Amino acid sequence: MAIKPAYVKKTGNLLLERYPEAFTTDFEQNKDSVTKLTNVESKGVRNRIAGYVTRKKSGEAAA
């Protein structure tokens, strides 16, 4: 099953909008936050979302 990039981005942006304090630039912590805040059962999808959120947060910190 292919993971749609639009799904990852939409879910990641929604999580950042609703729970900005739950995410940092640490991928491991973001994986835990995605697990707690969503009902995503697939490890691959969870990791993609956590990676996307981590990149977004890293970009904010650099800017």
Automatic annotation (TrEMBL):
The keyword Ribosomal protein applies. The keyword Metal-binding does not apply. It comes from the Archaea. GO terms for molecular function: structural constituent of ribosome. Coiled coil: none annotated. SUPFAM superfamilies: Rps17e-like. PROSITE patterns: RIBOSOMAL_S17E. Belongs to the eukaryotic ribosomal protein eS17 family. NCBIfam families: PRK01151.1 (NF002242). This is Small ribosomal subunit protein eS17.
